[in-house]
Amino acid sequence: MEIRQLKAFLAIAEAKTFTAGARRVNVTQAAISMQIRQLEEEVGLPLFTRTPRRVILTEAGEYLLERARKILREHDSALAEIAEVAGAEYGRLRIGTASGTFAMNQLPGILARLRDKFPNAELSVASGTSQTLVDKMMHGEIDMAFVSLPVDNLNISTESLFSDEIVAIAHPEHALAKEKFISAATLAGEKLILGERGGNTRRMIDEFFQAANVKPNIIMELSRQEAVTKMVERGLGVGMAGAKSVAREIRDRKLVSWLIEGAEIKWELGLARLRGGHFSPIGKEFVRLCKESFGEREKELRARR
Length: 305
Description:
305 residues; alpha/beta; D-Maltodextrin-Binding Protein, domain 2; 3 domains; 10-stranded mixed sheet; 22% strand
């Protein structure tokens, strides 16, 4: 049962003749007769009783009439909604973020600007670890996500937005506050406050300690970097953070930082989406706004130094 056949059936049912019905759907009478013949063969019953002046719906035709109207309404609605998704005003974007700092500081402004261009768009935001968000994308639950790079999934494409070198951070009154470097063994012996497992940054930190053959003394595992930083500011332990992200706290002497000997741990934030998936206008605009925002962020951070 094809859409064109249902349109032909409905046109004849409403116009009462094959000739008038053919004109409604802009086909020849021979073509519309063939479509109805094919439809009747599929249904297994005649849909019209032919008379010299008009056609009359059979009982089977009457049953099909309302269903055909409903199917065609749904068909037209689906096409209209798809057109809206591709248009400049409507759309849907489901976003995930593994970065609490970004979600708090930059994302609200980006979404406000996106809303200005797509006032009727459906926007949603979910948080989680990078791996959790990749899994959500694979299951079609979100469209894009801010995740720690790299992403080990061939079905996901990523674009780097921001990178930062991981350093150790401590309270300014720490016994080693005046040092510039800290060894893996010394760092592992501190009361460590780290981010939760599941993200790429934590994985790289764990791999660093493993390669150095030391067991870290982890006393806290927190879901947000802001929480780690605040705990360290209170002198509750030693943490690890991106050098750029704690530049202000270092400058204001709320924290001190150490370069970690033998470590090249870089935190890189990227925007991920399904490879080969539909890239809607609202998605493209969102990516553009993100690049612009991170460009401004880099300028701001350089100005603080």
